[in-house]
Amino acid sequence: MYRATTALVALLCLTACAGGRSSQDERPPSGFEGAARLVDRGQYAEALPILRCVARQGEGFEIAEYLAGHSALALSREAETPDLLRDDMRAEGFDRLIKAGEAGWPAAQAELAEAFSTLETDTSRTDAAYWAEVYRGNTRERAYGLDRLDDGVEARIDAALSAEERASASARAAAFTRTPLERLPMTPDCAAHVRADRGRSGAGEGRGRPGGGSGGRGGQGRGPGGRG
Questions:
Q1: Which terminus of the chain has fewer CB atoms gathered within 10 Å of its CB, N or C?
Q2: Residue pLDDT, tens place only, 179-217
Q3: Which long-range contacts (CB under 8 A, 24 or more apart) does 48-55 make?
Q4: Per-residue pLDDT tens for 105-160?
Q5: How many of the other CB atoms lie within 10 Å of CB of 215?
Q6: Which residues are within 8 A (CB) of 4 and not within 5 positions of it... i.e. 6 or more apart?
């Protein structure tokens, strides 16, 4: 579990440093749409607090949970991120990506496969293979012709597995059951970001948004918004 208090203090400092990059904007970004634009620009420290708020609404906001995890993981790798925050950001990133992946969001599943494939832990190989298989079994994006999991990454995952590990990952993936996101109490500081999204289409069905149904962030995929 990441240390929320420490992460918040450090993230506030990081956000303040990053704020100058968007000083040309007339209004500060708010709501999911504003946060998605920040992610598109790589302004993860500014996007993450908004995405955390939007994701609190639970089921139907999987893309916000995914983008929050994507942003936290990206922050854990950025040179500007304070060292004391890196582990917390990495833990939060994986935690949120897993929640989004378990809720059925394909971009999160593909990113988890790639992220676990870069780790060297006792379970990382089978975790990477598990999420790769879960992603392959997810039909949500097939209608759009998307493939977010790079062939090279998938080949690397498969090459690292023993026959026993491959069988274990396959059996685990076969038992995958979608777990809806939990709705969390809305805090006063989050209310404004949630109000900003009212009257618009649901954040969880954001085709054309980052990690949404027609490409964008969330994988080095082939297809609209992807690579290849």
A1: N
A2: 999 999 999 999 989 988 875 544 545 434 456 543 444
A3: 48/11, 48/72, 48/75, 49/11, 49/15, 50/193, 52/190, 53/186, 53/187, 53/189, 53/190, 53/193, 53/194, 54/193, 54/194, 54/197, 54/203, 55/96, 55/181
A4: 999 999 999 999 999 999 999 999 999 999 999 999 888 999 999 999 999 999 99
A5: 25
A6: none
**Residues forming beta bridges with residue 147, ordered by sequence position:** 222
Say how many residues make up the chain. Answer: 228
- On the question of pLDDT at 10 being above 50, the answer is no
- 3-class SS string, 102-159: HCCCHHHHHHHHHHHHCCCCCCHHHHHHHHHHHHHCCCCCHHHCCECCCHHHHHHHHH
Token digits of residue 44: 């993860």
Residues 6+ apart with CB under 8 A from 114: 128, 149, 150, 153, 219, 220
pTM recorded for the entire structure: 0.80
